[in-house]
Specification:
Elements: H1 2-20, H2 23-39, H3 50-77, H4 95-144, H5 146-163, H6 166-188, H7 210-238, H8 248-280, H9 291-297, E1 300-308, E2 313-322, E3 329-332, E4 339-346, E5 350-355, E6 358-363, E7 369-378, H10 383-391, E8 404-406, E9 410-414, E10 429-435, E11 441-443, E12 447-450, E13 454-459, E14 466-471, E15 475-479, E16 482-486, H11 493-513, E17 524-529, E18 536-538, E19 543-547, H12 570-588, H13 608-621, H14 623-626, H15 628-643, H16 659-675, H17 677-691, H18 698-705
Length: 707
């Protein structure tokens, strides 16, 4: 056994030396390095997570690397199949050992070829995220690159055996290398998921959809082993050389191994199909419910809920009070599909039952009926299914009705979610008991009590839309009197202040100028939450929730920084957009208010008065962040656009393409200089109080602003 192992090592080493002595091998290594260099956006490196960087480079190298592997493999493997020499011109002691050794030698060559780009990317990851980031890169690369390249190499070997021509082997190998990514997409892309672009979150791990990736990668390795075994068997039969007789016991062992491999491939294929079916299955659509009449008839609504992240179980109790009704009431419920009503309790003189998620109430009493609903079940979605529901473009503007996620890594709740029977109705009070809570919790509760095994969050008043988020994986950073809750390996240390400081400053400015009542004396809290779609801001509790996509493009594109002057400053433009977003969040509260953000179209039709008032208020609030020169430059630019409407394409400012908004902002600026800053803050506060998110006409606005 030791002799055979040494022989395999010697042949593999010789094959690797042959490859590494060729200039073509190092030319391929240089091409790999160039691909990695152009794939990495140097400007956004500090804002990229370790796993996203490893994932992006692995995708590129797996696709283009397959093509290079075909070229290397066809060159190396067809040396033995030259015409006139038969299938093998080298006599070896054992054909299987020889084939295995050559295959290992080629794998070593490919690993060395990937070495330079791997070391360079590992250095970048280490500089930003330390050794844990390098470990993440190694794991992602082994998951995504290795099985693909091993299968491509095995198929190239089989083609060389069949064609015995280097050119034909390479051409057919290129077809296979192209078809493998297509196979990836055909299996799993309809589920909004593909292993070649494996979805990964630094906060909650790979999630249940990671099973599909494992099935897929194991299938590749099993197929590669089967191809190599069939090649060895075929060459042993037809090769014109004297092979020693194989003992019957060894023949039986090889037959059993091949049978098991075929059975394994069949099992992996079935498992992959099952995983794909689980990913593509959609949740049953929620029934259409006219929520306004339902909430109108409820006089009181109180919730108590207990969450167990270890089991994803939820148990809740809801107390309703409905008025006296002359006829039976039908109250449609909107529970999560994993939850069910266990018990219905009513006061004497009334009867109630739940049928098909509809509460039927028949009251013969002359007093309002008190109803208690006890419900329980599982509050957990497959990660991929959650993304389809929450992040799909088709539903990006729909109300956020999912509203909760619960597992061992992450727990969060939003008030208007289907984790309670009436998600559209605002409760008067709420109590949440979180079993075995993590240390890091961001919440908007009025008070909290914690014991060794339980965290109790209590809202004694109607709770705001964001309730809480908790995770064992959050990292806490302290910045300018604020607590930042960040997923691990998300931001480099030196980038945290650059990205988060404008948010902290804007929260303080909004509190000083726009709040009618001062906020409670508590530190600002900012949490990046991967499982929410829109940002949420609750100034009363000083809590800001940001979707983690806000970190993907924190800087302004290069094409909008041409020229000189204050508007050519990427840092100032970024802070200007942060101010715009924060004022939108304060103004709209819990309403369905579209945010004006850089990634949205300038020409999107929006209400003139509200857009202009919000944008000018944000500009003045941002003045301490961007400087007075920036403010004057923006206003001068808007003045120029009124004379040259096409000039808006040269700048990157909110609502800059809307003529009426620019005009009204300039009038507001004249009011600022004539009546003082306090006039603007008063108008903003009173307009929000009287009109909310409604936009009145320009004439009506001036009558309101200047009575």
């Amino acid at each position: 056994m030791v002799t055979r192992l040494l022989r395999i090592i010697a042949i593999a080493s010789y094959e690797a030396k042959l490859q590494l002595r060729q200039r073509a091998t190092w030319l391929v290594a240089a091409l790999f390095f160039l691909l990695g260099w152009f794939r990495v956006d140097q400007r956004l490196l500090p804002y990229s997570s370790a796993i996203s960087l490893a994932q992006g480079t692995a995708e590129t190298l797996a696709i283009f690397g397959s093509l290079f592997v075909v070229i290397l493999g066809a060159t190396a493997l067809t040396r033995e199949f030259a015409p006139g020499y038969g299938y093998l011109w080298v006599r070896v002691a054992s054909l299987p050992d020889y084939l295995l050794a050559k295959y290992l030698g080629l794998c070593v060559s490919i690993a060395v070829t990937l070495g330079p780009v791997g070391v360079w990317i590992a250095y970048l990851v280490y500089a930003m995220h330390g050794w844990p980031g390098v470990a993440i890169q190694f794991g992602v690369w082994m998951l995504m690159i290795a099985p693909t390249l091993v299968l491509v190499l095995a198929m190239t070997f089989a083609l060389g055996l069949l064609t015995r021509r280097r050119l034909w082997s390479a051409l057919l190998g290129l077809v296979i290398a192209y078809s493998i990514p297509e196979l990836d997409l055909a299996f799993l892309h309809p589920a909004n998921f593909a292993p070649i672009g494996v979805y990964a979150s630094a906060l909650i791990g790979y999630g249940p959809d990671f099973a599909a990736v494992v099935w897929h990668r194991l299938l590749y390795l099993a197929l590669a082993f089967l191809v190599i075994a069939i090649c060895a068997w075929a060459m042993r039969i037809v090769a014109p050389r004297c092979e020693p007789a194989v003992p019957r016991r060894a023949q039986m062992a090889w037959s059993m191994l091949l049978s098991l491999t075929v059975a394994l491939i069949a099992g992996l294929t079935f498992g992959l199909q099952q995983a794909r079916a689980a990913l593509t299955s959609d949740l049953a659509p929620a029934p259409a419910v006219d929520v306004a009449p339902v909430c109108a008839i409820i006089e009181a609504y109180h919730i108590q809920v207990t969450l167990d992240p270890q089991t994803a179980r939820l148990a809740g109790k809801v107390t309703l009070r409905v008025p006296v009704a002359a006829q039976p009431l039908r109250v449609p419920l909107a529970l999560n599909h994993g939850l069910h009503i266990e018990q219905v309790e009513v006061a004497s003189g009334s009867s109630a039952r739940v049928v098909d998620n509809v509460l039927f109430l028949d009251s013969s009493s002359r007093q309002p009926s008190a109803i208690t609903l006890r419900y329980a079940g599982t509050l957990q979605y497959p990660r991929n299914q959650y993304d389809i529901i929450v992040r799909s473009l088709a539903q990006s503007l729909d109300p956020f009705r999912t509203g909760g996620y619960l597992d061992r890594q992450t727990t969060f709740l939003i008030r208007d979610g289907n984790w309670h029977p009436l998600p559209a109705c605002q409760p008067q009070s709420l109590q949440v008991d979180l079993l075995q809570p993590p240390l890091h919790v961001v919440h908007t509760a009025d008070r909290a009590k914690q014991t060794a095994d339980r965290l109790t969050l209590i809202w004694e008043r109607p709770p705001p839309l964001p309730l809480f988020t908790a995770s064992h994986r959050y990292q806490i950073k302290v910045l300018d009197g604020a607590l930042l809750f960040l997923p691990p390996q998300r931001l480099a240390e030196h980038a945290i202040a650059e990205v988060a400081s404008p948010y902290v400053a804007m929260m303080a400015f909004i509190e000083q100028q726009l709040l009618a009542q001062p906020a409670r004396l508590a530190p600002y809290q900012i949490a990046y939450v991967p499982l929410i779609r829109h940002d949420y801001y609750d100034p009363a509790s000083r809590v800001l929730w940001l979707s983690d996509t806000r970190l993907e493009v924190p800087l302004i594109p290069e094409q909008y920084l041409a020229g000189t002057g204050p508007l050519a400053s990427r840092d100032a433009l970024y802070r200007r957009w942060i101010a715009e977003r924060m004022v939108h969040l304060w103004w709209c509260g819990e309403g369905e208010c579209l945010l004006a953000q850089p990634e949205q179209s300038f020409t999107q039709a929006e209400p003139v008065v509200m857009s202009a008032l919000i944008s000018y208020t944000a500009l003045r609030l941002a003045e301490p962040l961007v400087g007075s020169a920036f403010v004057e430059a923006e206003l001068a630019t808007r003045q120029r656009i009124l004379a040259e409407p096409a000039a808006w394409v040269e700048v990157w400012l909110p609502h800059v393409a809307m003529f009426e908004v620019n005009q009204l902002m300039l009038h507001l600026d004249a009011l600022w200089h004539e009546a003082g800053s306090e006039a603007l803050w008063r108008i903003a506060r009173e307009y929000r109080q009287h009109y909310g998110t409604d936009s009145i006409s320009v004439e009506a606005f001036w009558q309101f602003a200047l009575p």
